[in-house]
Amino acid sequence: MKPLLINGEWITTSHGRDNINPSDISDVIDVYAQAGIAETQAAIQAAAQAGEKWGHSTPQQRHDVLLRTANEILQRKDEIGRLLSREEGKTLAEGVAETTRAAQIFDFFAGEALRLTGDKLASVRPGVEVDVTREPVGVVGIIAPWNFPIAIPAWKMAPAICYGNTVVMKPAELVPGCAWVLADILHRSGAPAGVVNLVMGPGSVVGQEMLENPRVDAISFTGSVATGARVGDACMKQMKKVQLEMGGKNPFVILDDADLETAVECTVNGAFFSTGQRCTASSRIIVTEGIHNRFVEAVIDRVRMLVVDDALKSTTQIGPVVDETQLQQDLDYVAIARAQGGNVRVGGEELRREKQGFYFQPALITDTQNTMRINREEVFGPVASVIRVKDYDEALHVANDTEFGLSSGICTTSLKYASHFKRHAEAGMVMVNLPTAGVDYHVPFGGRKASSYGAREQGSYAREFFTIVKTAYTAP
């Protein structure tokens, strides 16, 4: 059984949870200890105590821990990437790429630890000096999702540590393996006892204690809108700092002047790669009339060529969905779309493979309206719907007609429309002739509306959440 990490010690509990391979449900990757309220409280206490010293550690000390972590992740990228693909279902290539990204994130924040700056200003009062500095928030509770088992924990833990905070990490129950490896690497890379704590277990127990415990100063959460709203409410009641990254119903606009090959490849990549289990996935494909029919037929041909199979096979392009619940959700939404008048042109069915797993044929649904449930609610699977529109103006209106605002994309050869879309798309991130999914590690990530709340993640903008600004005055 893989233990918890609390105050620098590995702790085994009385019960564990199997980590199941979605490509082959007979493959139990390992058993992971489950924390209860007592273990979660112990982890929070350890983090609070460690913060008294870690919050005043030198930039060099924090840099060294982060850099050693980055180097080991990179050296073990093939091994960790394989674990990631086994527990989450991404293809092996995607698993290794995500692991590499995690290493790059730690490397970036190793540098940021040495670049933390402030301001020295003249006061409006004669002889008075003003210093503006940043200090750590304190104990940061991290609640991570299952779709990026190492990248999302990395882009939350790395800046937290970089800026002198201590961490209590709760990975998603479906994918504890990569988070466990990450905690182990940080521990052996010199993170002092209590700086990094790993508590695996159900959100109703571990997550709830993190929300309610007054010694937790901030919560960084990625997950569903419904859960995020509850997290936000709980944090506000205690005046905890909170950062929420939630869902998306991301539009990808195809204009008549678009390069057809580019439009098809961006759509297939954005909608179906990583099994569509990305909050930035293209789920509403908005196509103008002149290119609509040619585009749809080309996408159907491309989707039929996709190889859906075991994530570890070198020929696989689309792995399984993460578990039976997600598989049923995908099937249910396809049925709902069909019942409301959508035309399922390809896919939308459960697949059988050599090994028993959660396989689903990527689906393209045409003849949909933006008012249908398939275009209002996040499916979180390889399901994309097509909305036919008259022109650019209608496309922009439909793209913005959603409660979400994470990522928005357009495919066009027109500088005029590309520039206008970048300015008027109501999303935190805009892609031009690129898939809506796929972002760099050194720039801010986040959305607007119901997709995000609070400061941005990643890049130098992460400091806005993980630090508190202090203004100090000095008289002569």
Indicate the low-confidence ranges by residue numbers. Answer: none
Q: Do you know the CATH architecture of the largest domain? A: 3-Layer(aba) Sandwich
- What would you report as the Rg, rounded to the nearest angstrom? 23 Å
The total strand number stands at 22
Specify the CATH homologous superfamily of the largest domain: Aldehyde Dehydrogenase, Chain A, domain 1
CATH class placement of the largest domain: Alpha Beta
Percent in helix: 25-40%
Number of domains: 2
**End-to-end distance, in Å?**
61 Å
Q: Which shape, going by the Cα principal axes?
A: globular
Could you characterize the architecture of this molecule?
The protein is of the alpha/beta class and 476 residues long. The chain has two domains: 4-246 and 442-474, Aldehyde Dehydrogenase, Chain A, domain 1; 250-432, Aldehyde Dehydrogenase, Chain A, domain 2 (3-Layer(aba) Sandwich). The chain has helices at 37-54, 59-75, 77-88, 92-113, 151-162, 176-188, 203-212, 225-238, 260-272, 289-305, 324-339, 392-400, 415-424, 463-466; strands at residues 4-6, 9-11, 16-21, 24-33, 119-122, 129-136, 139-143, 166-170, 196-198, 218-222, 241-245, 250-254, 282-288, 343-346, 350-351, 359-360, 363-366, 383-389, 407-411, 429-432, 452-453, 467-474. The protein is 39% helix and 22% strand. Helix 3 packs antiparallel against helix 6 (176-188) and helix 9 (260-272) packs across helix 10 (289-305). The strands form six sheets. Strands 14-17-18-13-12-19-20 form a seven-stranded mixed beta sheet, with helices on both faces. The protein has 14 helices and 22 strands.
